[in-house]
# Entry
Amino acid sequence: MTETKSYQRGSAATEICNVLRREILTLALEPGTPLDETGLSKRFNVSRSPIREVLNRLLAERLVEALPNRTTIVAPVDLMNFSNFIEALDLQQRYATRLAARNRSAGDLVNLRKLSDQYRDAVHSAKAFETLQANFEFHNAVALAGKNPYVVRQYGELLSEARRLLHIHINFLDAQGRWDVLDDQHDDFVDAIEAQDVALADRIAHEHTLQFHDRFLKALQYRSDDDFQFETTDSRGARTRP
# Structure
């Protein structure tokens, strides 16, 4: 389907990237889906130049993958290596938060409070996409407060990959009506960082990772309507249950 929207000069790549990012993160574009430059150009009614820029941005966020045959696909979600991913995320999250507690500035604290409030607003509004994006922006700001560009880059890559896993987690909580468990998760981070309590920041970051790990695994095992049974009729029209 071709989109007929007109873009302001220089804005096409950013707006198209926002659309595709949202579709990828919410799994509307499934892992492994090919992203053809020509097809995307037709869809968004733009030349291939901004589409190339969009794909490069998404590649940098690890949301797409370039194959050896030059085909670009939506990056797979590698559940087989989930334990390795969690191990790496835990180490980076703890270290990034420790550095933030040690090196944060007054300006960092103002920004972290603001982003924590935005996250809480998204949770209270039960907006799944806005929640996962607010979570990403908060933790990325934690990394920036640590003042180590290598940690910012490495932790940022893991945070970006985690967004689709978080979407699955949020959908699970939404199905159970349990948005409340996501509330106020970031206030403890900011309090520890503000107090420059490195040990406490480390512990909170570690617990945060473990919570995500446990809830995500529950989301994968979740089955709705376990007691639901189909009713059928036999040859005489009598109702039966399988």
